[in-house]
Amino acid sequence: MNARGNGSGNGPAPNGSTGAPVIRMRDVHKAFGPKKVLQGIDLDVGERESVVIIGGSGTGKSVTLKCILGLLEPDKGSIKVDGEEVVGLTGQARDRINAKFGMLFQGAALFDSLSIWENVAFGLIQGRGMGRAEAKKVAIEKMGMVGLGKHVADLFPAEMSVGMQKRAGLARAIAADPEIVFFDEPTTGLDPIMADVINELIVHVVKDVGCSALTITHDMASARKIANRVAMLYEGRIIWAGPVDQIDRSGNEYLDQFIHGRPEGPIQLQVRAL
Ligand SMILES: Nc1ncnc2c1ncn2[C@@H]1O[C@H](COP(=O)(O)OP(=O)(O)OP(=O)(O)O)[C@@H](O)[C@H]1O
Ligand SMILES: [Mg+2]
Question: Quick check: CB of 59 below 6 Å from ligand 1?
């Protein structure tokens, strides 16, 4: 368990959403040419809260994440991390913010030419300048947290199953004790049983590390398992947000259509016959 005082004068929140959010997005807009993708995103992630953004393909979930990570710059709006405005930050200032983050990429995205422990320790060695021996110790400890034994440390990704690769990706995401972990479609490409194992693991690991989590997914089973709070993205805005136990009685017809996967409803499919 880590102390989560941020030392930045923002006053660490005593618990969850009662304090200042660790991520606060207000009126965030992003367009690509004429295509308006984000059209006023408002979203908070509280300390130790697990927020899941759901929404259909192409609605801007990944763009939202990229704006927070600084990979894309919003056209308008504010994104605060621990109370600090991060839109427009570059170089070392951006690196300092991103050092608070851990990320599990879609498909785990491990480096093929590095062993599992080297993958897990990558950010510690490259980003923090930790010595290899110490980094290996930390990597093996984090691997243990996700159910990967010492004996797989020297294997290469190609020698592991997809589920084990996901575990390794998760160990890498938490290797540097992040304040906030991002999960991009954590269950895509997994069979339902393995998906459930990974969902469980995410819940436990987030709790053990004591971090906040922001996940994007269109897998409702995953959202139900991982989330404290769910936010639905549609036409560039968060059209509904609330505790996960309220999603079945939200009274929101867009959310209802999405969670039940109904073809009929207010959500217009952006699919045209060729
Ligand atoms: N760099 C870019 N340049 C131009 N258009 C982009 C760029 N990045 C994303 N888009 C467009 O923005 C829209 C939203 O994309 P995004 O990847 O955020 O969707 P998503 O909600 O993550 O979808 P999926 O569930 O399929 O991953 C899409 O229409 C996409 O084509
Ligand atoms: Mg995406």
Answer: yes
